[in-house]
Amino acid sequence: MMRRKYGGEEADVVIVGAGAAGGVLARELAEAGMRVVVLEAGPLRDPQKDFASDELSMQRLGWQDTRIVDGGDPLTLGHNNCGRGVGGGTVHFTGVFLRFHDADFKAKSIDGVADDWPIGYEDLEPYYARNEKEIAVSGPKHFPWGNFRGPYPYPEREPLSPNAYMFMNGCEKLGIRTAVAPLAILSAPFEGRPPCINRGFCNQGCMPDAKFSTLIAHIPKAIRAGAEVLADCMVTRIIAGKDGWVKGVEFVHDGKTHKQTAKIVIVSAFAVETPRLLLNSADSRFPDGLANSSGMVGRSIMVHSSYDVYARFDEEIRLYKGTPVLATTQDFYRTDPRNGFVRGYTLHAHGARPVEFANGVSKALGGPVWGPRLRRTLLDYNLYGRVTMVGEVLPNPENRVTLAGEKDEYGLPRAKVTFTYGDNDRKLIDHAVAKMGAILEAAGGKVEYVVPDTAHMMGGCRMGNDPETSVVNSYGQSHDIPNLFVCDASIFVTSGAGNPTNTVMALALRTADYIKEQAKKLAFRG
Amino acid sequence: MAAEGRYPSFNVLDERDAWDEHTRSIVLSRLEPSPLRFLTAEEEAIAGRICALLVDDDTPEVIRYVVSHIDRTLRESPGEGQRKAGVPEAKALIRSGLKAAERWAKAEYGLSFAKLDRAAQERLLQLISAGSAGPPDVWRSVPKQELFDKFRKLTVEAYCSHPAVWSAIGYAGPAYPRGYVRTQLGQLDPWEAKAET
Fold this sequence. Notes:
The complex is a heterodimer.
Chain A: E1 11-16, H1 20-31, E2 36-39, H2 47-50, E3 67-70, H3 107-111, H4 121-134, H5 162-174, E4 179-180, H6 218-224, E5 228-230, E6 234-240, E7 246-253, E8 256-267, H7 270-280, E9 302-305, E10 308-312, E11 327-329, E12 345-349, H8 354-362, H9 372-379, E13 384-391, E14 400-407, E15 413-418, H10 423-442, E16 446-451, E17 454-458, E18 484-486, H11 501-520
Parallel strand pairs in A: 1-2, 1-8, 2-5, 3-15, 8-18
Antiparallel strand pairs in A: 4-11, 6-7, 7-8, 9-17, 10-13, 10-16, 11-12, 12-13, 14-15
Helix pairs in contact in A: 1-6, 1-11, 4-11, 5-10
Chain B: H1 21-29, H2 41-55, H3 60-76, E1 82-84, H4 90-109, H5 118-129, H6 136-139, H7 144-159, H8 163-169
Helix pairs in contact in B: 2-3, 2-5, 2-7, 3-7, 4-7
């Protein structure tokens, strides 16, 4: 049985999901004196006891519940994107902590594709800076791309990994600029946490606490400020009242359904679960799901194209050593009129441990690779180097989350995720794959495997100024239901071409400021 | 496998005392036989051959672990992450695939799949991976490439989690609490595998 703090009484705010956004919101709103309840579907883990230096057993950090996938390019989910447990995806993310560029907010005005965001880089700039300072992001003194050129709050990581040095060598030969990646991983002690020891298991949960997650950074502060954070509580429905405002949520803990009422509901459950919950909360007043008068809930989901290119070298690289991503280039980030496509991509030197390596290689293009060829490749594991792209994928309303006929353990329809790359996406991927190959070969390798993959997920509840074509405003506030907010990557308008966590957390800080201000004005009815 | 690799005298388990306790208990548990509770003995024999062919390694204790991982995943995994529309749940997919493999073997060769020679077994895997296994009355209800992909993923993730394989490929593995210190190209920490060929 759970011990409750705000059980049986109305909270000011209930937050669904304790991930990147939920963690930030919980801390901000609790420190502002609001009565906050956070409901997280997965467990509360102790990094020392529950994490391990092991890929297979730590797959559980990902959201493993089955989603139905279809479309021309059915997605791989699970550990690829969303987390399950307090800290959400930040527990298993690689720690890459990039800002979007000004051009990321203006795809339509610059390139005539997708849509502009209702906000620009300058609106998020102060929040990016706050995030980076609050978690002591390590990075270069000078970052060569985008609007922020450094210096980062903490010095860049040193030493790097052998794969990162290989990548930098290859890029240098081709005249491609590189930088040490800005990382939410400490390069020196901070708030009682030690610097990174290059253990390499960022995606399996950081045992030394050198990598930031909201599990170890924001959530403990939220709890100290009075927030109630409940793990193993799956929210199954948002309750809407007769007046069209939301009243709270229903959630399941240990097989029993509970209710938490609140003045404000914030959904921060990731680009699949957020639209799924809104759709599953349909009632007679909102038959198409909550906040869905535009019909855009679940639509225009995006991933990042994340192809890996593996090359074999004569000398050992040893992909397992060190933090997975330590070196990066954004030389191909912006639209280049010489290309046959718009927008761009980031390239990372990207380490891999054996499970990830073998799983990737065995499903490489031209595969499947198995039997003697797979065996020879595994025996040469230490000779391989890898580069991975983070490519922009343009929004398409037909790429979407809907409800499947099949039900889950709570009796709720599973999410169905439909995805197909567009022409521009494919041309961009081809360009990036060729570029990654060129870098690896310039470094002395021979390209052997190209592995199609995706990472991250954005969209599905896009923001906008027009209630006809968007779900929420730029603060994540539903156009339809003023006390219902969505705050996570699902409100992105476009995907950008870099890792999204800093942007998710910047949006969360901005939403928190807005809610604090609105609460002061008593705009929310009690 | 180790004998063919570049690190014949490396044994990653020699470093087990340097690992944190949680990791150590997880890795060492893979060396212990664990009883199967989902697959039948007949299914186990077929699955074992399929796994061994996929990774081209029939080291008994490694394949036994791989099959036990498949058994445990089918029994108690919280989910599959994703499943393509129209494809049966993993339990049903694997079970119907094993059954079809057995029927195919009996129809084509008059023998159990596990008793076929390697070339015949490989032939079926090739056909499944290409989606062209027949005859239709045996294979119609089995999504063949999905079956292959499920076996591929479950097999390689378990295979590459066995410490004998870590040793063979020269993977120094868990590194907490000590971390990696010498990380320039060509540098090794003292406990890492040194290439001998």
